TrEMBL record:
Residue ranges, compositional bias (Acidic residues): 265-275
InterPro entries: Gpn (IPR004130), Gpn3 (IPR030228), P-loop_NTPase (IPR027417)
Pfam families listed in its UniProt record: ATP_bind_1 (PF03029)
Keywords, comma-separated and alphabetical: GTP-binding, Hydrolase, Nucleotide-binding
Subunit structure: Binds to RNA polymerase II (RNAPII).
Organism from which the protein derives: Notothenia coriiceps (black rockcod)
GO molecular function: GTP binding; GTPase activity
Domain of life, per lineage: Eukaryota
Purpose of the protein: Small GTPase required for proper localization of RNA polymerase II (RNAPII). May act at an RNAP assembly step prior to nuclear import.
Residues in the signal sequence: none
Family note: Belongs to the GPN-loop GTPase family.
Annotated CDD domains: GPN3
Protein name: GPN-loop GTPase 3
Chain intervals for the UniProt region annotation (Disordered): 262-285
Length: 285
């Protein structure tokens, strides 16, 4: 039987841990079993129970304090993740093997891990060897995406992760519940954007002709091939969360292998009795 995984990725501060906590509660309310694994060796706290915590294997603070390494925060995080990649056995033992596992991996926020370093790609390949169907969930802060150029930057980061990881990816704008009503209306155009119209609106602000042509080429590529679209994520909106979850489940084909349960058979005598009781109750009322 396959196992299922959400690889929750994105820049620092995009709300990955909050997403994991909220989605875990949402799945629990649906009577669906799910677990979370923390893969951020620099994490200080989170408000969800973890199935496994990479800090039991290695921590950024320990690496930075090692006099023989002398790493800063970024170098320390990269070192930790490379050490993790050489010790996937620890993760395998922590995960065990339970049929129909549904696991959310709360990943670090260093964008280099998803754009050009091989660590996360190696993790994906290892999970696939363990029979996981993996979906990337790329988060960006909606408060950051309210200007055209910032939006294009976010799109390029999401596209880079898609190219490197080579897995189905759902792109999400988080923290929609923190936006003002005016900002929510403004950001709607970025959920299903017309890149050409956006370029026309901002073309007067681009002074360099070469930069303008490059930006137009990027926007044309994204628009013509519908390569990146974002879904809104408001943790107070149950219906919106359901739509996000359905998109993720569809991408990893969750539920297709679940056994169909036939309804219990009811004998004729019991059926007649229930039928009579129902209508007798109606007649009495």
């Amino acid at each position: 039987m396959p196992r299922f995984a959400q690889l929750v990725i994105g820049p620092a501060g995009s709300g990955k841990s909050t997403y994991c906590s909220t989605m875990l509660q949402h799945l629990g309310a649906m009577n669906r079993s799910a677990q979370v694994v923390n893969l951020d060796p620099a994490a200080e706290h989170f408000d969800y129970p973890v199935m496994a915590d990479i800090r039991e294997l290695i921590q950024v603070d320990d690496v930075m304090e090692d006099p023989s390494l002398r790493f800063g925060p970024n170098g320390g995080l990269v070192f930790c993740m490379e050490y993790f990649a050489n010790n996937f056995d620890w993760l395998g033992e922590s995960l065990g093997h339970v049929e129909d596992d549904y696991i959310l991996f709360d990943c670090p926020g260093q964008i280099e891990l998803y754009t050009h370093l091989p660590v996360m790609k190696q993790l994906v390949e290892q999970l696939q060897q363990w029979e996981f169907r993996v979906c990337g969930v790329f988060l960006v802060d909606s408060q950051f995406m309210v200007e055209t150029f910032k939006f294009i930057s976010g799109v390029m980061a999401a596209l880079s992760a898609m190219v490197v990881l080579e897995i189905p990816q759902i792109n999400i704008m988080t923290k929609m519940d923190l936006l003002s009503p005016k900002a929510k209306k403004e950001i709607e155009k970025y959920l299903d954007p017309d890149m050409y119209s956006m370029m026309e609106d901002t073309s007067d602000n681009i002074r360099s002709k070469k930069f303008k042509k490059l930006t137009e080429a990027i926007c044309g590529l994204i628009d013509d091939y519908s390569m990146v679209r974002f879904m809104p994520f408001d943790r107070t909106d149950e219906e919106g969360m359901n739509m996000v979850l359905q998109s993720i489940d569809f991408s990893i084909q969750y539920g297709e292998d679940l056994e169909f349960k036939e309804p219990k058979e009811v004998d004729d005598e019991s059926a007649d009795l229930n039928y009579d009781e129902i209508f007798q109750g109606k007649g009495d009322s």
